[in-house]
Write a structure and sequence with these properties.
- This protein is an alpha+beta fold.
- 43% of the residues lie in helices and 18% in strands.
- It contains 34 helices and 68 strands.
- Strands 5-59-58-57-56 form a five-stranded antiparallel sheet, with no helix packed on it. Strands 23-24-25-26-30 form a five-stranded mixed sheet, with no helix packed on it. The protein has a four-stranded antiparallel sheet with strand order 6-62-61-60, with no helix packed on it.
- A hairpin with a 5-residue loop joins strand 36 and strand 37.
- The longest helix has 127 residues.
- The radius of gyration is 61 Å and the shape is extended.
- The two termini are 110 Å apart.
């Protein structure tokens, strides 16, 4: 506090302060006017400010700032924690305060007002003090500062700047820094006025004293002057640190680290840190958060808050005297099972979950309950438990909600975390170490905050996402990593320390090709990857922010049917739970290493174990029991016990041990899932009934137990409930329940042996949609039900519910109320949700005829609600302005009175002008009317014809009184126009939150109101208030209120009271049910101790049959059933009328028939014709046409049905009959009971044949392609190239010879020379044929020569056969076993085996069935023979005497099961017979009913019994015939014997003997046939027995094959990959081999082309030499011209009509002379090859030039061909290298495939194979006994064992034979080697001899083939002939030229002298060159080659230069010799003695 010495400054600056006060007042008024719509009553009357503060704001569900009672002594810190208001409300209140303070300063600064102030001014001063007193401590301090501001008005401007909305938005966007809510004020303060300072100082002293007592430490005086440098005030001795730096509070909010605030906001919205500098220097975080005394502001570890101070409490209207304990919570019966992750577990085990504004702690072992209230009163957002189970965190909802940390089990409030989000928390989680806490908020900020919760500090914060976040979790292994997920996203967070502080950066997961999904559950894997669920039930594996793979079950089945809610890693296993009610356990290793090789990105895996909790279970979360075992459970069971949250309303106990002792899932608690739709208390006992989901539950609220439950059979939700009182049902044991499908059920509560049950008594369906309201008229026992189908149905309640009828209403019914008894008429008030209200008169019992329909015609009134809220708000604004105007007028009147009292005079006009108050005209907002009518929640009668409405949506916040129109016509119109209410009243402090439920207590002592935001309000009523009708004024009475249900989802839907009025119950849409008592809990408990709910005395009768329930969703409603019955009655009456008319017609027909008969009896002349009876012939025609049309119509109508039945028949046949190849035939023996049945086999499916065909086709293609690639090598390609080149060469030679022959035909040679040439050609042809023959022999020989790596195919096949059939048994289980190529198995081969086995089984069964059917046919033929024989026997029996007769054998019959194919055979006669039989049965049944007994006995349906009956009848007939014929026969014989002669008697005896013989023979035949058939049947029966064994073995084999196929399918994907790799490598290698072969062919072709060019060049030189001839003096010149090297441009194609003639040489642009030739020309003194020298033949010179051009062309072509050949050779080398690499890769792939085959074979070996053995077959004996365990034994046959033993000897014998063969082969090999050496020596001798002969004949080694072509050169011969002729012609010319030679000798002498001088110069140059060469050679020798030697290119270049030097030296020597010859007189130029060194082209 400031000292009083500073008070002198106040009086000095009063005028300035007055001016500033006015400015502040104007600004405050402007601010207040801006918020008129939010709080219209803020400035209603400034003169009426009293100690009563404004009422609390219900929407924010927080207590008002002045709600603290003085006697409670609550301090300002408690008020600050509990009471936080929204930003807009604070701005309005701040404006109000500044206005009041400014007004007070203004009045204090009035002239002369400091000494003598009026009473009004003193009252204003008191108002200022009281107004400030009700605020919190921070507000009081701020107002003190505001009052003492200096004249500069600086504080006012700072405050306005801080209150601006722009700053608030920027403060919210502070990245990773806690939000500072305290306002910053200027350091310059002034002392307030002494009178005000004294009052404020006293208040502050009291509050500081209380704060000191509570916090245990002294608090610094707030009045202490702050520092003048403008630094922020330090709290706790140290400013808060954010990002590792202290926060600078004087820094502008729009700038952070030099960056504008807009940038920060954009970055924060993207989930990134604001400070993005130095990310490269990020270091791993080290989170060593101190737990004790971390700083000056940290709290000690034993510090606890007072829970009572922070827990939200009820609000009571000030000075109302209402006790705070008018309602006291005693139990919570509900559970918000729809809330995500609303189940945690504490030791005990104790379940902890959120229940509205409570934290419910449920001891699962002791079944005890504890409750903790929230501090905000807005609800609980999330609950989580500390990893050490010592604390649990409760994250709340509301304005600036807190996170409360409680200690367990003491339940002390340990820490409070503040300023983490704006409205609500959605999830919180501790890190594994427990020292950090992560929280995430809901809309609007979605803020992710990391807390140092022990020190109550915010470490990091940022915006998590722009949509709902479901979950945030710390990584269990990677410290500093988090993950969050929610609507359509998942985000990965990392924390790291940099030199600028701690950073939090988020990476948003990208779904890529996967569909976007809400992520409900995830788990972080140890290696950093994240596994999450999805909406469609698959698992998503995230790696690096991307989906690595999607995981599903085999067959692309989803992991769960629906969303996956939670994933947990427990003991190395992954556990997932889903809404499908399954808990599945997965192998962690397979999930962690999941990957795909195809493009689908889906990995298939099966769970290890799974548990189905229930069919109607939706699991959302699950927690594991982590504590010591209880006494009655084992350690193993405790380790696997989990508790699960069921969204369908339940808590389950699960045992996930998955062993033989695993217990089934146990449902511990059952709750109502979702919203509570109905709540009613028993009128006779302590019970309460609840509806909401598919069940109706009854609780005993004294014992807090659930008594019984009724489950709806159709899964329809119960929507409304009513428990009639004793006036309706004396026992009060009947409940009436409405359901969402329109059903009304009557349930009876019964008990039997202490077992309670709720059974169905009656069920009706009055509605087609949800039943929303029930109401009973107590006097007349009439029940009214309202529904969404816009009907109200009335019932009479007797022992059964009797329907009366229904009426239609204008909208869906939301509420029903019967009129009070005081009204003149009894009516029902129907409230519709669409804004309509109807009044229906009570129906009279029996007053309506409902025989046809239940629809009633009752008097009804209608009302349509018209919104007036906009008008009300406008009126309130106008009223506020009017009050302000009146206040100003009062002030002016006072001022006028004071001035008049002072003596000032005013005229009337001046007085009127002074009192005139000018109003600022403001444009009023237009009236608003919602497009959709507001929802009507409830309607209550206020008076007769008047009612009160509770309205929601836009019109909420008021109660409206309405009245039905007096217009009789319009009021009965359902489409009545909307009408405005006649009255309205604002609900106090409702803040436009609708009152959803209004309930009057039974004793009419209070009115209870439930709001949409979960608040319960109680209005105590006075005793004299009559609540028979609703009085709207009671809503303004003082009240008590408490926030119980969730503020967002806790819509209060039901309120009910117990029968004795001691208890109250509320239900909300959040699924919670709360029970309260009106008295203190201790007194209630003592009064009710030992009591239990009295159940009805009615007991359940054991013989009582429960009523039939309606379980058909399409069942008729009562009205529909009535209409249907009426329609059926009409139809029945119509049918009866038709029958009566038909009888009349039938009588007329009989009369007409009699007339026709009489007419026919008349004589013909008087008989009427048929046509005469027809009155109108057209009638018959029309009748026939009508009949035909009806027949056609019936046919057409039945056509579809006929086709449908035919199609159904065909389908049935195809499915069950046609697919059967052979039905089951049971063949019976004739004389025994033996039977043999066939095999019922189905046809082989089409897929079988298709697959078989495909496999056969693949096998065929494989056999064609086999070995083409595998055996190929590089040499094969080379051989192919050689063969092709040889073939081309032969073709070239052949074409050359053919050309020579053609040239021969055109020769010009004659005479002897011609004959000589012809002989030479003939000789060449003969030599050619010999060479061809010899070449063919060589080719054949080389073809027969094998390659170096050649192996004989026969040897290879023998080796393979030996390896396969060597006789040993290679065990597949051996470690060194290699799967042979032909034994490698894949799915196709296995399918082939299965198909073959199925075919064999089918074939065997079919063969047996064929035998059986043939035997059956044999039986039929035998039965036919027996019938014939019996017929003959009957004839014989008739002829025999009775004494000789024998009983005839029965004729056997085929039984039905022997002919199953005839079962469905029928004819028309069969159908008619069946129809007649059915008629007889119907007649028999009718006679039985009439007589009570059957006339003909019963009919049997079995044909066998009918047959037996027929047989018995025949037998009886035979006996009767026999018995009746015997005496007559005897009498006849006796008579005959008397009359017959002796011969006749003998003949008769002979005939008798014959007949007896024939009879006996026939009997023997019958017996033999029967015996033979039975024998065959017996044999067939034995055969089937053996076949059954074989087939059973085949079935076992098929099972084994199927198991192998399943296993192979698992390996198929991998095998296909490896096989594809091998085949790919083979194809690549094959391509390389093909390219090598092609390249070899190209090389051979180039080689031949080069040889051809070389030969052409040689021929060109030969032609040039022939042109020169012998002794040509210009030979040297022409040679130089011919050999001259010139540079030529590339030839261009000649233009059209132009020819190129020497242009390459003549043009300077196209050709150029070489430098060397120029030097030579200069030496020779002007050598010019373009001019023919004198004396030289011009034609010869031109020919030489042409030859030179050809030579140059050939040289260029040769160079080009060599370049191409070199490039091809390089390509060839690269291909060879590539082939070696490919061979290596192929070998690697084959090795990998081999390893895979071994692995696969090992898995196949693990399969069990059934081998049935007899005991005598087991011969394995160990120690004299057969071992008990044969698992390690090998099943082996004796024959195979003997074969192995025999094979040993065979192998020994074969080994000896092979050794002898090898010895012989070795000797033969040595002999062949010697012979080869001898032949090679012989060949060398012959070659040497041939070379010697060539040297003798030609002087050099020549090519004979080329020599042949040269010897017969026709051109040369012709040239020789021409030369000879020219020599003769030129001999004369030579003589003439001799003289010319002598003249020229002198010229030569002169030229010789010139040449001599040149030679001297040349000699000098040569010497210099020699010295240079020596120096160069010396330097080259001195070079150091120690590094790695010369490179190859350098070496070749050096050799080329050396060769060039040698060539130049030779040319120099040749020139010297030539000069010497020229210098001699008469010398001739001879060819050089030594040829020049040829140039090596390779170098």
């Amino acid at each position: 506090m400031k000292t009083t010495e500073d008070s002198n400054e106040v009086s000095i600056k009063t005028e300035d302060q007055t001016q500033d006060g006015k400015v502040d007042e104007d600004k405050a008024k402007e601010g207040a006017e801006n918020h008129v719509d939010v709080l219209p009553s803020v400035h209603e009357d400034e003169n009426t400010v009293s100690k009563d503060s404004p009422q609390p704001d219900i929407q924010s569900s927080e207590k008002p700032e002045d709600a603290v009672e003085p006697d409670k002594g609550q301090n300002s810190s408690k008020t600050e924690e509990k009471q936080e208001v929204s930003t807009k409300d604070e701005d309005v209140k701040e404006a109000e305060k500044s206005e009041i303070v400014s007004e007070a300063v203004k009045q204090d600064e009035q002239p002369d007002s400091t000494v003598a102030s009026t009473d009004q001014e003193e009252a204003n001063d008191e108002k200022v003090v009281e107004k400030i007193d009700v605020q919190d401590s921070s507000d009081v301090e701020t107002k003190e500062d505001d009052i003492s501001k200096n004249d500069s008005g600086e504080a006012s401007e700072v405050k306005k700047e801080k209150d601006s909305s722009q700053e608030d938005e920027e403060d919210k966007v502070n990245d990773e820094k806690p939000v500072e809510e305290s306002e910053k004020i200027s350091a310059q303060e002034e002392k307030p006025q002494p009178a005000e300072e004294e009052q404020i100082e006293k208040d502050k002293a009291v509050k500081e004293e209380k704060n000191t007592e509570e916090e245990g430490k002294p608090k610094e005086e707030d009045g202490k002057p702050e520092e003048e440098d403008g630094k922020p005030e330090e709290k706790g001795g140290k400013p808060e640190e954010v990002d590792g730096k202290p926060e600078e509070k004087d820094r502008k909010p729009e700038e952070e680290d030099g960056k504008p605030g807009v940038e920060k906001k954009a970055q924060e919205e993207n989930g990134q840190s604001v400070e993005k500098s130095d990310e490269a220097n990020i270091e791993p975080p080290v989170f060593d958060v101190p737990t004790e005394n971390a700083g000056d502001d940290s709290k000690p570890s034993d510090f606890y808050y007072d829970y009572e101070e922070y827990a939200s409490t009820s609000y009571v209207s000030p000075e109302s005297g209402i006790p705070e304990n008018i309602l006291h919570l005693f139990h919570s019966f509900g559970y918000d099972s729809k809330k995500k992750s609303n189940l945690s577990l504490l030791p005990g085990p104790t379940a902890v979950f959120a229940a509205g504004n409570l934290v419910h702690l449920l001891d699962l072992s002791a079944n005890t309950h504890k409750f903790l209230r929230s501090s905000s009163g807005g609800g609980i957002g999330a609950v989580t438990v500390h990893p050490e189970l010592t604390h649990f965190a409760v994250a709340e909802k509301g304005q600036k909600p807190h996170i409360l940390i409680y200690e367990f089990p003491s339940l002390k409030l340990f820490r409070i975390l503040q300023e983490g989000t704006e409205r609500a928390y959605s999830f919180v989680d501790f890190n594994p170490n427990g020292n950090l806490l992560a929280s995430v908020g809901c809309a609007p900020d979605f803020m992710l905050t990391v807390w140092d919760w022990i020190n109550e500090k915010i470490m990091l914060r940022t915006k998590a996402f722009s949509q709902d976040i479901f979950r945030v979790k710390f990584a269990p292994e990677q410290e500093g990593q988090l993950c969050s997920s929610g609507t359509g996203h998942i985000r990965f967070w990392k924390m790291a320390r940099t030199f600028t502080g701690l950073k939090l950066k988020g990476e948003l997961g990208r779904f890529g090709k996967t569909s976007l999904s809400d992520i409900g559950g995830f788990v972080q894997l140890p290696d950093g990857k994240v596994l999450s669920g999805s909406e469609w039930g698959n698992l998503l594996l995230w790696d690096g922010g991307l989906i690595k793979v999607e995981i599903c079950r085999k067959g692309r089945k989803s992991c769960h049917a629906g969303s996956i809610q939670q994933l947990v890693i427990d003991e190395g296993e992954l556990i997932t739970i889903g809404v499908d009610g399954f808990v599945r356990v997965w192998e962690m290793e397979s999930i962690d290493t999941a990957d795909t090789t195809d493009e689908s990105d889906v990995f298939e895996v099966e769970p290890m174990n799974e548990l189905k909790v229930g069919s109607e279970v939706q699991l959302t979360s699950m927690v594991k029991l982590r504590e010591t075992k209880p006494a009655d459970e084992s350690e193993e069971s405790i380790e696997s016990i989990w508790f699960a949250q069921d969204a369908n309303g339940g808590i389950w106990k699960l045992d996930l041990s998955f062993s033989h002792t695993t217990k089934p899932p146990e449902k511990l608690y059952s709750y109502t899932a979702g919203k509570i739709s109905g709540l009613t208390a028993s009128p006779a006992s302590h019970m309460v009934a609840v509806t909401g989901d598919t069940s109706v539950r009854i609780y005993d609220y004294l014992t807090k137990d659930a008594l019984c439950e009724y489950k709806c059979p159709m899964l329809s939700n119960s929507s409304s409930i009513l428990w009639p009182g004793k006036l309706i049902y004396a026992k009060s044991n009947i409940l009436l329940v409405g359901f969402s499908n329109g059903l009304l059920r009557s349930l009876i509560l019964q008990t039997n042996e202490d077992e309670k049950s709720l059974t169905l008594q009656q069920v009706l369906k009055p509605h087609t949609q949800e039943v929303t309201a029930l109401a009973i008229h107590p006097d007349d026992r009439i029940l009214a039900t309202g529904s969404k189908d816009q009907t109200v149905f009335f019932f009479k309640l007797n022992s059964v519910i009797e329907p009366i009828g229904f009426v239609s209403v204008p909208g869906p019914v939301s509420h029903l109320q019967w009129s009070p008894d005081s009204f003149s008429s009894s009516t029902l008030l129907v409230c519709c949700s669409n804004g309509k209200v109807a009044e229906v008169a009570k129906p009279g019992i029996g007053a309506f005829d409902t025989s046809h329909s239940y629809k009633l015609t009752l008097p009804m009134k209608y009302f349509s609600f018209q919104s007036i809220k906009s008008q009300l708000r406008r009126d309130e604004a106008r009223e506020r302005k009017r009050i302000e105007k009146e206040n100003k007028l009062k002030e002016k009147k006072k001022e006028l009175k004071r001035r008049k009292d002072r003596g000032e005079e005013f005229s009337e006009e001046e007085e009127r002008e002074f009192l005139n108050v000018e109003e600022e005209e403001e444009e009023e907002e237009p009236l608003f009317f919602p497009a959709k009518p507001s929802l009507l929640h409830a309607a209550f009668y206020s008076e007769e014809n008047k009612f009160i409405l509770s309205v929601g949506d836009y019109d909420a916040g008021y109660l409206y009184e309405c009245e039905f129109s007096s217009d009789a016509v319009s009021v009965q119109n359902p489409d009545i126009a909307p009408a405005e209410p006649i009255n309205s009243l604002a609900v106090p402090e409702s803040n436009d939150i609708p009152a959803t439920t209004i309930y009057h207590s039974q004793n009419a002592h209070c009115l209870l109101v439930g709001f949409q935001n979960g608040i319960i309000r109680v209005h105590p009523l006075e005793k004299d208030i009559n609540m028979e009708t609703f009085k709207m004024d009671v809503i303004t009475l003082p009240y008590w209120q408490l926030s119980m249900h969730d503020n967002e989802t806790g819509f209060v839907s039901s309120i009910c009271e117990s029968n004795d009025g001691a208890f109250l119950f509320t239900g909300g849409n959040d699924g919670n049910i709360y029970g309260y008592n009106f008295l203190p809990f201790e007194e209630v408990y003592k009064a009710m101790e030992g009591q239990r709910a009295r159940l009805p005395s009615a007991r359940k009768d054991a013989d009582e049959v429960p009523a039939d329930d309606i379980d058909d969703p399409q069942a008729y409603s009562i009205e529909d059933a009535k209409l249907k019955a009426e329609h059926d009655r009409y139809m029945k009456e119509a049918e009866a009328k038709k029958a009566e008319e038909r009888q009349k017609i039938q009588k007329l027909r009989h009369i007409f028939t009699d007339i026709i008969k009489k007419n026919d009896q008349l004589p013909e002349n008087v008989r009427l014709k048929r046509e005469d009876f027809e009155l109108d012939p057209s009638l018959r025609v029309n009748m026939h046409e009508a009949t035909n049309k009806r027949i056609e119509r019936v046919r057409l109508e039945m056509q579809w049905e006929k086709e449908k039945l035919n199609l159904a028949t065909r389908k049935l046949k195809n499915r069950f009959s046609d697919m059967i190849d052979c039905p089951r035939i049971t063949l019976h023996a004739l004389n025994s009971e033996h039977t043999v049945s066939s095999y019922r086999i189905t046809r082989l499916a089409d897929e079988y044949f298709k697959l078989e065909k495909n496999i056969a086709e693949r096998a065929r293609l494989g056999s064609l392609d086999g070995g083409n690639i595998k055996g190929r090598r590089l040499s094969d390609g080379l051989d192919i190239g050689r063969k092709q080149s040889t073939k081309e060469e032969l073709e070239h030679q052949q074409s050359f010879l053919q050309g020579a022959v053609k040239k021969q035909k055109g020769t010009t040679l004659q005479g002897r020379q011609a004959e000589k040439v012809a002989k030479a050609i003939k000789k060449a042809e003969e030599a050619k044929k010999k060479r061809e023959q010899r070449q063919k022999e060589w080719d054949d020989l080389y073809k027969s020569k094998p390659a170096e790596n050649y192996e004989d195919p026969a040897d290879i096949s023998d080796i393979q056969e030996a390896k396969a059939n060597i006789g040993d048994f290679k065990l597949k289980t051996a470690s060194d076993y290699v799967v042979p190529e032909h034994l490698r198995m894949d799915t196709e081969k296995k399918k082939t085996q299965i198909l073959i086995l199925q075919g064999l089984i089918f074939q065997a069964k079919k063969e047996f069935n064929t035998k059986l059917t043939s035997l059956r046919d044999n039986k039929q033929s035998r039965i036919g023979d027996i019938k014939e024989w019996v017929k003959e026997l009957k004839e014989i029996q008739k002829k025999l005497n009775g004494t000789l007769r024998k009983t005839l054998p029965k004729v056997p019959k085929m039984k039905p099961d022997e002919l199953p194919e005839r079962k469905y055979d029928y004819t028309r006669d069969t159908l008619l017979e069946f129809q007649a039989l059915e008629k007889e049965r119907e007649l028999a049944d009718a006679s039985k009913k009439r007589s009570g007994m059957g006339m003909f006995g019963g009919f049997d349906d079995e044909g066998g019994q009918d047959g037996e009956a027929e047989g018995d009848k025949e037998e009886q007939t035979t006996k009767s015939v026999k018995s009746s014929s015997t005496p007559s026969r005897s009498r006849h014989l006796s008579k005959a014997s008397k009359t017959q002669s002796r011969l006749e008697i003998e003949i008769a005896k002979i005939n008798e003997i014959k007949l007896v013989y024939q009879r006996n023979k026939l009997l023997r035949l019958i017996n033999q046939s029967i015996t033979a058939f039975d024998a065959e049947l017996h044999l067939l029966r034995h055969e089937k027995t053996h076949l059954d064994v074989d087939i059973k073995m085949a079935d076992l084999r098929q099972i084994t094959l199927l198991e192998e196929l399943i296993l192979l399918k698992e390996y198929e994907k991998r095998e296909n990959t490896l096989s594809g790799r091998v085949s790919g490598k083979r194809m690549e290698l094959n391509d390389v081999y093909t390219k090598v072969a092609d390249m070899q062919v190209k090389l051979e072709s180039k080689r031949r082309d080069i040889e051809k060019l070389t030969d052409r060049e040689k021929q060109l030189y030969a032609t040039f030499n022939s042109y020169l001839g012998d002794n040509n003096k210009f030979a040297d010149f022409l040679t130089r011209v011919f050999k001259k090297k010139i540079k030529r441009a590339k030839k261009k194609k000649a233009e059209e009509g132009e020819e190129e003639e020497g242009s390459d040489m003549s043009s300077d642009d196209e050709s150029d002379w070489s430098s060397e030739e120029e030097e030579d020309d200069s030496i020779e003194g002007g050598f010019d090859d373009s001019v023919c020298p004198p004396g030289c033949d011009q034609q010869l010179f031109d020919d030489v030039l042409n030859l030179r051009e050809k030579r140059l062309d050939l040289e260029e072509a040769l160079v080009e061909e060599k370049k191409i050949a070199d490039q091809q050779k390089k390509d060839m080398d690269s291909l060879v290298k590539k082939s070696k690499v490919m061979e290596s890769q192929l070998k690697t792939a084959l090795d990998a495939l081999e390893e895979f085959q071994v692995e696969k074979q090992g898995k196949l070996n693990e399969l069990d194979v059934v081998v049935p053995l007899h005991l005598h077959q087991v011969e394995h004996v160990s120690n004299g006994v057969v071992p008990a365990d044969l698992s390690s034994c090998l099943v082996f046959t004796n024959q195979s064992l003997i074969g192995l033993q025999r094979r040993i000897k065979e192998l020994q014998h074969e080994k000896a034979e092979q050794r002898s063969l090898f010895k012989d082969a070795r000797m033969s090999h040595v002999r062949l080697i010697k012979d080869r050496k001898i032949m090679e020596q012989k060949i060398e001798r012959l070659e040497e001899k041939c070379e010697q002969m060539m040297m003798l004949k030609f002087g050099r080694i020549v090519d004979l083939d080329k020599l042949d072509s040269i010897t017969i050169n026709k051109t040369v011969e012709e040239l020789k002939q021409k030369v000879h002729q020219n020599e003769l012609k030129n001999s004369a010319k030579l003589l003439r030229l001799d003289n010319l030679i002598s003249e020229l000798k002198d010229t030569i002498t002169q030229l010789t002298r010139v040449n001599t001088r040149h030679l001297e110069k040349y000699n000098i140059l040569v010497n210099q060159k020699t010295s240079l060469e020596k120096n160069l050679d010396q330097r080259q020798k001195d070079l150091n080659f120690d590094q790695n030697g010369d490179k190859k290119s350098d070496t070749r270049e050096r050799q080329r230069l050396m060769q060039l030097v040698q060539l130049q030296a030779q040319e120099i020597q040749a020139l010297k010799e030539e000069i010497g010859l020229l210098s001699r007189k008469g010398g001739h130029i001879l060819p050089p003695a030594q040829p020049p060194i040829t140039r090596d082209d390779d170098l």
